[in-house]
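### Sample
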Amino acid sequence: MADNISLLNEILPVMTRSLESQAAAVDENGDFPHAIFALLRQHGLLHYALPLEAGGSGATLRECQAVIAAVARGEPSSALILIMQYLNTRRLGKDADWPDAVRQQVAASVRQHGALINALRVEPELGTPARGGLPRTRARRTAEGWRVSGEKIYSTGSHGLHWFLVWASSDDADPLVGGYLIPASAPGIRIIEEWDHLGMRGTCSHRVVLDEVLIPFDYAVNVAPWSTPKPGLSDEEQIWMATLLGTLYDAIARSARDWFIAFLQQRVPANLAAPLASLPRFQEIVGRIDTRLFTNACLLHSCAQGEIASAHASQVKQVVTENAIHAVQLMVESIGNHALTRQNPLQRHLRNVLCGRIHTPQDDAIFTSVGKAALGAAT
């Protein structure tokens, strides 16, 4: 790990600065950040979480966290796409329950070509599968293989992906539910460019429409009968997701803090004849901000070091995200119009950090689960 961390310390600060120079344009046009992913591929960061036995770098959570923090400090939409790449590619080791030939095919594409993969799960009618229900996207058995039809929304990465891992159900009496692997180049796929969100605009999370897309039978890579479903995320996967998502939104707040501190040091109102940074009011605000970010740093470090049980992963995600949001909101509230002026990056950081509340699990589900566990333990 020491060698990897040393390498990261060398390349990541330079990468952050490069991404920062592109962030405003990515936010403005909402296109997939191809240039950023070319840079990430150049540095070997697209197969970074791919296990060693699959030809990847086999990076640890701590190492992947360092990459996500650096990318998110520069351009956070790219960091979210990269998180999904890490979460999906790290499952391609020899212990994966995929058909081995298919697993090796996807791993080779990631290793050799920087292929991107993400799970497409949310549907227009059903919403997020975390709330339960059977997907309407159907895999129909034919003599040739599966024919998959349906629609997926909020498909993070859309135009930049090489592989879609589509959550669907088969047309069997007891449907096979789970991930059906679909090459993004397959005939019958249409991307409707409807992602026009307030923040994280470069994630390119458009609607993907599948119309009788043909895939081989062994591309049903992670399915199980509806009557006996597979378990959800493993304990380790829950920690990885909470840590990387928390790191993303914490990094946005830290970028906002950097700009805010520079603004306070440089802004000298005529009636004050001294920088805003000299005022106790702003010193207190910065203290409040830094205390929240210090809390985040402690929680994220403990998660990455394996010191927090998976039962608390969602709580870490919730606390870190809310601390990041509140920190940026403090900055915005304290400096007025300067904060919401489009030529200043703080408004972009605010829009991006607010998106942290959207990711599964959401606050109501987190608090209900924690409350139920506490009340059950007390009876």
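The mean pLDDT is 95. This sample (Acyl-CoA dehydrogenase) is used throughout the tutorial notebook.
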